[in-house]
Every structure is written in C-alpha cells, then in structure tokens.
Design a protein that fits this description.
Region (Disordered): 1-42
Strand order of the largest sheet: 3-4-5-6
Family: Belongs to the Rieske iron-sulfur protein family.
Largest sheet: 4 strands, antiparallel
Organism: Streptomyces variabilis
Membrane topology: Multi-pass membrane protein
Number of strands: 12
Domain Rieske: 245-335
Length: 352
C-alpha cells in the first residue's frame, strides 16, 4: 500500500530522523549510548482498513483454535483405540493418536499465532527506555506501574477490538477442555478394591505349579509352596491384576515352633498361609530359610519371621505380611476361611 492510498489526516507528523549519541563516551563509559532509532509507523497504525484486516486474521486464528479443540474432543470420543490409518511417509499409525496430535497441535499453534499477529500488527510498538530504579516499591513507583498498566491496556485495543477479545476468550476457555476429557482414561475410582482379593470363604488353595488343589499331606515341615485361588487361570484377562493381590506363600512349621498365637490359630496343623507380596514395594517373595523360618525379599532384602506372624526383622518393609486364615473342607482339601484381614502389598493412603 502506498502513501497515496492513505488519507492525509491519518499520516504521521514528520519526524526528525537525525539523532546522535544520547550519552557520549567518556572515561567511565567508553562506549557511547546511541539511543533509540526513530519510530516508523506500521500500515495498521495509519490505515483502519489494514487494522480491520489484521483484526479479522487474529479472530480467524482464535476461531480455528476453538474448532480444533472441538475436533480433539470429537476424535477422542468417536475414533476407536485399535483403528489405524496410513500416513505417508510414516506408514500405518494409530488413527486416534494422529487425530489427537494434529488437533491439539493446531489448537495450540493458532492461539500462539493469533497472539503474535495481534502484538505485531495492532498493539503499540513504541520502544521505551526506562532508567533503573531501586527494588523497593515506593508509592510513586506503584502509581507509575498502574499508569503503565492502564496505558498498556489502552494500547492493546482489547476494549475497542471486541471481535478479537471475544474470540480469544473463547479459544482460551475452550482449550482446557482437552485436558478434562483426558481424565476419562483414569478410569473409575478404586473404591475398596485395594482392600480385597479373590480369596473368600470356601476358596480352595491351588498349587501354582501343578494347578491342583492342595491337601495338608502335600506340604512337609520346612517346605515352601506357592498357591493361588481356585478358578483363577493364567489365560484369564485379569490374571496379572488378580494374582498380584492374591498370590499366596505356604510354609509348614511345627506347631510348637510358631510363636505368634493368632498365626497359630489361623494355621492348620502348622501350615501358614501368608501373602507373597512384599510390603515394601510389592516384589514377590521367593526365598525361605527353613531353619530360621525367615522369608527374604530378593529386591531390597526385607526379612520376615514366618514363625512370629511374618513380622519384619530386617529391611525397609513397613509392616508384616498379611496372613490368610485357612482350614480343611469335607474332602480334605485346604481352603480359605475368608479374605486377608488387611490390604496386601505396600502401604497406601487408606491403610490404618
């Protein structure tokens, strides 16, 4: 656009472009301060039609951001997780991930691009030099800050350019909904699931190796056997989740060697059933010393005395291994007489 196309009354006043050093060089300051160059107005400063075009451009970018956010939410809700698409030259990728990435990136880019274009074309671009001042906020400094803020608000033309203001507020208000929608993947609240396992009254103790129900005669004094609840199979969809809570460790000790009274009452003929999951960070316990009746966690060497209620005698574990009360059914098989009396594994926020 040439100066002939701009109304004469909108043209800026002539400025003196000659300028010398604001502060000449001297002994203390060997470099001269050249000062600021003369301000050159932009097209938008002198032509309202150009300013309107910039305003519409910024509003368009904010509007595209809003549409991209809506597309993000729609993609998250409608596109199946297992669907894939071919994208050259990447190849086959997840359609959901591709759609989420593109829409989220476009929403962020348009907000940033709109803000940059707004600042470069419509906000004041006068350069100001301000002398250093003490850090303490004196009354005159606070007054100056408020004056500068009001001046900046005025120069941002936010109040006059309502189209920019409304679309910007819409884009900024709508974009956080992307994060809110993602909270759906956190799933339902855990409730009391961490306090319960598959063990219940009447559940048979099944040998992990043979997959057969256990009888008292299958365990000899000094032996260590691992068991799982009846009905839990390795091919089940939730096997890993359930076995991580229900894995059981069986040891047989002479009843006279069991020190803890409750542990003796919950056992059967010296057969003790404890959780296999360490109460430190959840590692599986697999090392047993039959002479001392100590079980050792191989991860961080937490040691439990199985003859004394599985109390911690060494290591970082915070509490004993939970015990499962067991008995024998009419057919002579070992069975659970209930669930663990406390959550298994590491301590968590609801314990105690």
């Amino acid at each position: 656009m040439s100066s002939q196309d701009i109304p004469e009354e909108n043209l800026p006043a002539a400025q003196d472009t000659s300028h010398g050093a604001v502060k000449p060089a001297d002994e203390q300051n060997p470099f001269a301060d050249p000062g600021l160059p003369p301000h050159e107005p932009r097209v938008q400063d002198i032509d309202e039609r150009a300013a309107k075009r910039s305003e519409r451009t910024v509003a368009l970018l904010f509007t595209v951001s809003m549409l991209a956010t809506v597309g993000f939410i729609a993609s998250y809700v409608t596109i199946p997780v297992d669907k894939s698409v071919y994208v050259w030259p990447i190849g086959h990728i997840s359609a959901l991930n591709f759609a989420l990435g593109m829409t989220l990136g476009l929403a962020l880019f348009c907000i940033g691009a709109g803000a940059v274009h707004w600042a470069r074309t419509l906000m004041s671009d006068h350069e100001l030099a301000d002398e250093r001042h003490p850090i303490e906020a004196a009354p005159d400094v606070r007054a100056k800050v408020m004056d500068d803020f009001r001046q900046g608000a005025k120069e941002s033309v936010l109040g006059r350019r309502k189209l920019i203001r409304n679309t910007m507020f819409g884009a900024l208000a709508l974009f956080p909904l992307s994060g809110v929608v993602l909270l759906r993947d956190l799933g339902p609240l855990p409730g009391t699931k961490l306090r319960h396992t598959l063990w219940s009254r009447g559940k048979l103790l099944v040998n992990m190796n043979t997959n057969e129900p256990l009888r008292p005669s299958d365990l000899i004094v000094g032996s260590l056997t691992f068991a799982k609840p009846e009905g839990l199979e390795e091919h089940d969809h939730g096997f890993q989740t359930e076995i991580a809570k229900a894995a059981l460790m069986l040891v047989r000790i002479k009843p006279d060697d069991i020190k803890d009274r409750r542990a003796l009452e919950w056992s059967h003929e010296g057969i003790l059933a404890y959780s296999k999951i360490c109460t430190h960070v959840g590692c599986p316990i697999s090392l047993y010393e039959q002479q001392t009746h100590h079980a050792l966690c191989p991860c961080h060497q937490s040691t439990f005395d199985l003859s004394d209620g599985a109390k911690v005698i060494f290591g970082p574990a915070g509490h004993p291994l939970p015990q499962l009360r067991i008995g024998v059914n009419d057919e002579g098989y070992l069975e659970a007489l209930g669930d663990f009396d406390e959550p298994v594994g590491p301590a968590f926020w609801e314990r105690g």
